[in-house]
Amino acid sequence: MIKNVAVIGGDLRIVKLVEMLKKENYSVKTFALEKAIEIVDTKTASLDECVKDADIVLGPLPLSSSGRFVNTPFSSEKIQVEELINKIGGKTFIAGSIKPEVYEIAEDKDITILDIIKREELAVLNAISTAEGAIQIAINETPKNLHGNNVLVLGFGRIGKVLSKMLDGIGAKVACEARKTTDLAWIKAYGYEPINLIELKENLNRFDIIINTIPYVVLDREMLKEVKKDALIIDLASTPGGVDKQAVKELGIKFNWALSLPGKVSPVTSAEFMKETLLNMFKEINND
Questions:
Q1: What is the pLDDT of residues 217-246, one digit of tens each?
Q2: Contact between 105 and 81 (Cβ < 8 Å)
Q3: CA nearest to 5, candidates 41, 82, 59, 67
Q4: Which residues contact 241 (CB under 8 A, 6 or more apart)?
Q5: Could you say which of 3.40.1280.10, 3.40.50.720, 3.40.50.1370, 3.40.50.2300 is the CATH number of the domain covering 4-116+267-287?
Q6: How far apart are CA 42 and CA 31, in angstroms?
């Protein structure tokens, strides 16, 4: 039975999550969150002390931006990912966007590693916050209303679907790019303009705002040459993103690579989504 949770590092979502877990009657200890003023009675002086009696060790989302150090924005502590893994042998470790090399490090250390980002329920719920954040950026960074504006959404996955619905709801003229014929059919059924990937280049110059959700480079230099100079491009995709960063800068196109929006625009709601997902994971672990 899971009772004790150790929380290592993380952003404002994790800070809010700590209090939520306490209200669910979990015993929570934290490390590398000492600058979070909301957290009062859970802080520990060392990593060893934090994880010693833990049933579950919870890390940040994403676990690491550099690939080497754990994300600790609320701390001056520098914790190497490998060091953390070495400290938690025999336990279950939950974090987000865990790179393959972390699994390799943990291979002979009797650690169960679970990537919360891969949970479908969290991915779907996070799409809501991501879509709202993208719209907030579009409103702040364009001089015109979104209503009546031509907006192109690249990709029709979870985020693409939610984002297109929201944009349509506020009166934007929404077009969606996709490769699969089934996705193109659904785009048409929802009342948006479908654009096949093979026809993307010839259509780019029609749009005031382009929002990418595809996690590989779609807008390369040749594609970007077709984009209007006064357009705004928002990239929601994780590394390496969907836009040629050097080319978009050299071409002078307004660009915003908007990573980890749920934690930035709605940390409380995002923490609620995380809590729901974690409780589901705890039930599954308890039943093993």
A1: 999 999 999 999 999 999 999 888 999 999
A2: yes
A3: 59
A4: 212, 215, 217, 235, 257
A5: 3.40.50.720
A6: 8
